[in-house]
Amino acid sequence: MQQTVVDHIEQVAEDVVSLVLRGATGPLAPWEPGAHIDVTLPNWLTRQYSLCGDPADRESYRVAVRHDRLSRGGSEYIHRFLRQGRALDVSLPRNHFPLLPAPEYLFLAGGIGITPILPMLRAAAASDVPASLVYLGQSVASMPFVDDLRASFGDRVRIVATRRQGRPDFASVASALSPGAVVYACGPGPMLAAAEAAFPSGRLYAERFRPAPRSFAPNTAFEAVCARSGRTVPVPADESLLDALTHAGFPVAAGCREGVCGSCEVAVLDGEPEHRDDIGAPAGGCTPVCPAPCPRGSSWTCDQAASGPRLNARNDMLPKVRTPDSRQMIRLEVRRNTRLTPTFSTITLVGPELEHLKPMGFDQMVRLFFPREGQDGLRMPKLSSEAWMAELLLLPKSRRPWVRNFTIRRTRPELGEVDIEFALHGDTPAATWARRARPGDPAGIFDMGMSYLPPAHAEWQLLAGDESAVPAILAILEHAPASLVAEVFLEVPGTADIRTDITAPEGVRVRWLARDGADVLPGGPTLDAIRTSSLRPGRFYTWVAGEAGLATGLRRHLVRDRGVPKPDIAFFGYWRHGRSSPG
């Protein structure tokens, strides 16, 4: 990784900004036209962007980012939250789209696809190689770098606003090419499909935003053997290897998750995977794992990510949960619904079957079953083994209840009561049900155990979470021994959500962090506060939960910047910003 600082942010077209990232510790790694970098954002999402600056400039990188209306969080964060002076980690440049020597070039670019093409055009001009560009976009205002291109290359650049002019006839463009000329194209799928139909395959080199549609043999289940750990990971027919490895606890870097960027490549030691990406068969026996590779055989062996973290999962790095010796489905009903703050509400459940629940304290988790809107009752699985989920999925959706994970806030066995605390954000099924729940409404729970398992060697503890983890952390503090020494960071949406109902040992210091603003990214205040804190000396145990970026971001900071051993960190992503809300 390389450390950079955002030196300049500039609007270069409608919904497109240009970022200049200056090296924070010295010259940056060299690159060639066509290269891209992974950019790790402060919300700990990693995205790939083509380098569009000058390869001779070792002091800074330049990228351009279009605001994707269907953003998974990357472009949205850059356009809404990123500011000048922010530190960003970037990878070493990678190049799956290199500019090969040729007597003449034709460049085709569509929209943000101009970014890898721009340095190629400059390189050709610097080498006195004939080159021209056809640049397409819906409107001139939506096309970045138009003025720079016109000023630098004049009539060698043809600007086509397709909304007004329509798409050019690539066949006529192809007929005018001289022998030996090659075509480089980057842009949306329809543009590339038209280019592929017009230009001979041996003369066209393309980079895509999405994998090209192709037909493959039906998926089959297989096994991946991870050589360093010796573990075998089963990969179902309907799941990608990336998902299977992630679910098994292997830390694989992943960016596009579609087979385009190459950040999730792993080394193949044995077996022959079927390449379903747009990178082809990379050198060195590597394959991306985000498509669903159907290997030619029942298993293959992988070693490590070629560009990302090693595929060397260790059992002591994985989240641990202590489950009860015996458990069963417990039917209950609502006794009370108590509003605590604008965000928090407690629902008290009661029922004779509660005698089957074994209170464990701390962050004891349960699966909470509650009816969907319009259902006339609650249908719960009858099985109390791990097969309960399969039984549930056999129910038609119209009869299937909602199931969500929650922490038990308190139990009162003498009254046959249990409290479940909710963070009421958004219109998620659980938050909607919690707002409407009335005495007598049916509900059910299934005990899942606890994840708070501090090791004996910990001299103190670091507990952190957003509103979705506040109930668990408050329960941990209530059950903690009087000798506990801890630093606690609790993030809530607003100052009105800061709680006073805290019972904690004297050695615990609690800091409340209120976002108080729509433009403050969930998890950001907690990450910033801990990064700038002088933590206590001595070996400590960390328990962090909440928004996925907060959980993974804090773990990464502690491991990378503070040297905390990975086994000393328990981290849990309860929700993801932009996809769902807590509660």
TrEMBL record:
Domain FAD-binding FR-type, chain residue ranges per copy: 1-100, 327-455
InterPro entries named in the record: 2Fe-2S_ferredoxin-like_sf (IPR036010), 2Fe-2S_ferredoxin-type (IPR001041), 2Fe2S_fd_BS (IPR006058), Beta-grasp_dom_sf (IPR012675), FAD-bd_FR_type (IPR017927), FNR_nucleotide-bd (IPR039261), Riboflavin_synthase-like_b-brl (IPR017938), SIP_FAD-bd (IPR013113)
Name of the protein described by the UniProt record: FAD-binding FR-type domain-containing protein
Domain 2Fe-2S ferredoxin-type: 223-321
A Pfam match: FAD_binding_9
PANTHER family xref list: FERRIC REDUCTASE, NADPH-DEPENDENT, NADPH-DEPENDENT FERRIC-CHELATE REDUCTASE
Entry's Gene Ontology molecular function annotations: 2 iron, 2 sulfur cluster binding; oxidoreductase activity
Superkingdom, taxonomy of origin: Bacteria
